[in-house]
Amino acid sequence: MAEPRYKRILLKISGEGLCRxxxxxxxxxxxxxxxxxxxxxxxxxxxxxxxxxxxxxVRGESLSAHAHVQRSTADYMGMLATVINSLxxxxxLEHLGQxxxxxxxxxxxxxxxxxxxxKVVRHLEKGRVVVLAAGTxxxxxxxxTCAALRATELHADVLLKATKVDxxxxxxxxxxxxxxxxxxxxxxxxxxDNLRVMDMxxxxxxxxxxxxxxxxNLKKTGNIVRAVSGxxxxxxxxxxxxxxxxxxxxxVV
Length: 253
Description:
Layout: E1 8-13, H1 28-43, E2 47-52, H2 60-66, H3 71-95, E3 100-104, E4 113-114, H4 117-125, E5 129-133, H5 143-153, E6 158-163, E7 168-169, E8 181-182, E9 184-185, H6 187-192, H7 200-209, E10 213-217, H8 223-229, E11 235-237
Helix pairs in contact: 1-3, 1-8, 2-3, 5-7
């Protein structure tokens, strides 16, 4: 890969990123493709922490809305799903020769380490990828918020938000073929215009910590490597960017 722009990154991957569109569970091809890119980035000397969602198995908010399951219980179920995903990613990375550790916010000593900030930092310094499981360990907080929190704790240079779209658009690209991708946004614009890029807590925390966020399409081969190399892909969210003017921005799913 090209000379990396960042020394330490926090990569946020949704659970759906591990399966095909509309699928459930894992797709081995998708999992392997993601792991290959992470391993390539780590081999380039970049310290990589990963937060994985659990939506390919269960979403706490959706489950509690359509079943007789309390929201807190449903959220804990979602955290367990992230552990399943993290273990799968760990073994796939190690199959590729990349040393990896899983650190969980919930205690699961038989299968992974507990999240201890100083220990995770040491793993990163030794070139190990660390997959951060179980969100924050608390119900009612999303894995997006976990990503912003861990990026802050670990002093990451950037938060890479890997999604199924190319970035943030001025309108819904599924409904408007003329929708334009916005290259730069400030944290304040995202909050003020209620853009559904990440939840508001995550954006607020990133803004307070001054951690830039890059929103990009995970499904395009090589995009993780491109983002780390500093290529202009997706949408960059941060204060030290040129403002986007004369655009009426609509919330985008």
